[in-house]
């Protein structure tokens, strides 16, 4: 299954008015492990049985909730597959109405179960990872395995010995950067960029804020040009390039959060602007990782995200420049957990 088609489909399938488009797109997809329905009526009946099963459920552990949500997402995909083979199904047909009514009720019940007990950021991250529709196919793909190997090789490259050398190398990288138009050019750029980025993370607390902004801006210029080229000549971008970019994003935001945690635990002196940036960088992974990005995470990255989420109350507390206690930080992360859980439920179901 094409990564691009999958991402488009899952985005569109959340919009009721695009129901007809979903039926068309789904004809190009295969879901070998999903339930199979011979016709639309069977699909609707299965959705209704699922709804009845969860109406009486009062609560669920995070692990069980992840399984419940995954079951529903698989059932949805199989239902779409049945609808796509039925020429009588249109946006305003009785089948479509029955499906939308049942699906809305299922979402209400699963959200009720999800919110029945407090969920931490670690819980929310666990749900995002283990309910990602694409997870199994992505991790089984040759593209994902090749990209994991690619980044493991980059980990073997030593960081630069100090901050001045790092910043000089980063500036040299941008000075020599040419417009990226092909996958090989992208990989060649990432090889050096990754070394520079990991080196900056090592000296993060010592990097002036204006230099960080400058590096961010220059990075944006390079990749904006690439994305614009993709928009004009999208055939040049294959699945290998797409997964390379997704895993680059994952790698950077996780390394960012890990660097912040290390600096805080090492009691590095941070000014007000740095503390604000560190708060954002610690929270960023839990806000920005979508279903496809979550599916592409390695086991090591998953462990890191879950560990940081568990440490987050203490980390945020350490960043507060006022006299406070851990109860306040716990309350903040509780609010964040509820907010991210609501956002996650709205986006996934």
Structure overview:
This protein is mainly α. The protein folds into two domains: 115 residues, no CATH class; 214 residues, no CATH class. It is globular. The two termini are 21 Å apart. The N terminus is likely disordered.
Largest sheet: none
How many whole angstroms does the radius of gyration measure?
23 Å
Strand content: under 5%
- Decide which structural class fits the backbone: mainly alpha
Count of DSSP helices?
16
Query: N-to-C terminal Cα separation, in Å?
Result: 21 Å
Compact description:
Helix content is 74%, strand content 0%.
Detail the topology: elements first, then pairings.
Layout lengths: L2 H10 L6 H8 L13 H16 L6 H23 L9 H21 L6 H10 L4 H6 L1 H14 L7 H14 L6 H20 L6 H24 L6 H27 L6 H17 L2 H5 L3 H21 L6 H23 L1
Which key phrases capture this entry?
349 residues; 0% strand
């Amino acid at each position: 299954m094409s990564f691009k088609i999958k991402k488009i489909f899952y985005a569109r399938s959340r919009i009721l008015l695009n129901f007809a488009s979903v039926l068309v797109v789904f004809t190009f997809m295969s879901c070998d492990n999903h339930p199979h329905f011979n016709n639309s009526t069977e699909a609707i009946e299965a959705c209704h049985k699922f709804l009845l099963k969860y109406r009486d459920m009062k609560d669920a552990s995070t692990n069980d909730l992840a399984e419940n949500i995954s079951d529903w997402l698989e059932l949805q995909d199989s239902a779409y597959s049945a609808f796509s083979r039925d020429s009588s199904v249109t946006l305003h047909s009785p089948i479509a109405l029955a499906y939308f009514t049942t699906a809305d009720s299922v979402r209400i019940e699963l959200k009720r179960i999800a919110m029945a007990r407090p969920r931490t950021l670690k819980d929310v991250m666990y749900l995002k990872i283990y309910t990602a529709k694409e997870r199994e196919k992505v991790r089984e793909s040759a593209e994902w395995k090749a990209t994991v190997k690619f980044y493991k090789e980059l980990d073997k490259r030593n960081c630069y010995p100090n901050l001045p050398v790092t910043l000089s190398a980063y500036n040299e990288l941008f000075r020599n950067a040419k417009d990226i138009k092909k996958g090989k050019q992208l990989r060649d750029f990432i090889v050096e960029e990754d070394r520079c980025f990991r080196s900056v993370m090592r000296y993060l607390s010592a990097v002036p804020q204006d230099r960080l902004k400058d590096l961010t801006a220059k990075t944006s210029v390079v990749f904006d040009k690439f994305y614009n080229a993709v928009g004009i000549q999208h055939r040049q971008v294959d699945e290998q390039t797409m997964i390379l970019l997704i895993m680059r994003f994952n790698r950077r935001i996780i390394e960012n959060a890990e660097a912040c945690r290390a600096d805080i635990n090492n009691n590095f002196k941070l000014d007000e602007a740095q503390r604000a940036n560190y708060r954002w960088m610690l929270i960023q992974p839990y806000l920005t990782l979508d279903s496809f990005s979550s599916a592409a995470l390695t086991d090591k990255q998953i462990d890191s995200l879950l560990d940081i989420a568990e440490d987050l109350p203490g980390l945020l507390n350490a960043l507060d420049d006022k006299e406070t206690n851990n109860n306040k930080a716990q309350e903040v992360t509780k609010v964040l957990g509820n907010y991210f859980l609501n956002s996650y439920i709205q986006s996934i179901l």
